[in-house]
Amino acid sequence: MGTNPLKRNGNYNYVPQFFTDLFGCREFVEQYKAQWASVSDSIVTRNWEVMEKYIQNLNRGPMTRESKRWPLSGKEFRTSGTISCYDMGQYLSYIYRTFTINPQVNQRLLNDLAANEIGSPLSAAFPEDTRILHVLGRNTERKAYMECAIVDYKEPFALIIYVEASTSDSAGTAIATLGSYTQKYIESCYK
Prior knowledge:
Elements: H1 17-21, H2 26-39, H3 43-60, H4 62-69, H5 80-101, H6 103-114, E1 131-139, E2 144-152, E3 156-164, H7 168-189
Antiparallel strand pairs: 1-2, 2-3
């Protein structure tokens, strides 16, 4: 919380002012320092010991019992449609990382994504000056649509949205709506 919480000289975006105002009370500061002095030597080691005991107890009983009761072998949690979402997300992240290290490697691909003639439904979710490099895919058999994008908003990120919808318009609306949730989340991280 910085060296002087009352003057808010640290990073206080995540600490409500109510708590930092408490440091204006001399009695509170004295009690705070006394409490900190009593736990500062053991706060990490004690909690680590408690965590290790917790893990040992899990391994002894509950995890073993649950794995026998609910075996995971033979279960398929990723279907062909969802595998492509995870894989595309990892691939877009890889493309962006390699581009930042060596721009020539994926420059043509990024140029193609930027010059896509089909507009991105995500453009409705982000401010007009946001750069969206994307490709929109469709699986007619499953009535599925997938938007794969590198969105350069507050910071660049890969965004993959997979929806199943009866029409391309309703898929575009769903993608834009989900994109707006992402935009609001990122916006809240920068407040």
